[in-house]
Write a structure and sequence with these properties.
The protein has 168 residues and is of the alpha+beta class. Helix content is 40%, strand content 36%. α2 packs across α3 (147-164).
Length: 168
């Protein structure tokens, strides 16, 4: 019986060791890397009725800082045009330092492209809204972004381009 208890305790310790060896994700820091607000046609832009055409661009990048530690940067650009003139242009680079340790290559790529930007996006959205309102424009309410869909679309495009490339 004592032998059986030792085996059970040994199995429990092994299971705990396996859990400690699994992937680890942690947020170390979120910070504003860069921001810019321009309103080149002020104050003339405030004279007419406000009916802008708004364009929205986003991209992400990441770099390895240390073993299992990554810096992820989410770049958002919002441009509002009133007729043919730029009413305002906002650029925000929201960044974070994340620990992603013991991930396999595919899961690491996915986490850096989806999980990390999902964490950063609300901070960038708030910064953009605050800058636009301080510029005396109506708030810009950015809808949430499905980074999983953006990642899947990007992967599909890369695969399609890879298949379309001529074989040497």
């Amino acid at each position: 019986m004592a032998e059986n208890e030792n085996n059970q305790n040994g199995n429990a310790a092994a299971a705990q060791g396996d859990q400690q060896q699994g992937p680890m994700f942690a947020l170390q820091r979120i910070y504003l890397k860069d921001t810019s607000f321009e309103s080149p046609k002020s104050p003339d832009v405030f004279k007419g009725q406000w009916a802008p055409k708004i364009t929205f661009n986003l991209n992400t990048s990441n770099e390895k800082l240390d073993e299992g530690v990554y810096n992820v940067v989410l770049r958002l650009t919002i441009e509002a045009k009133q007729e043919d003139a730029i009413a305002f242009l906002v650029e925000v680079q929201q960044a974070g330092i994340f620990t992603l340790d013991r991930f396999n290559e595919g899961d690491l790529e996915r986490a850096l492209a989806t999980v990390c930007p999902n964490i950063l996006f609300p901070y960038a959205r708030e910064t953009i809204d605050a800058l636009v309102v301080r510029g005396s424009f109506p708030p810009v309410m950015l809808a949430p972004v499905n980074f999983d869909a953006v990642y899947a679309q990007s992967k599909a495009q890369k695969e399609q381009q890879g298949q379309a490339a001529p074989q040497a």
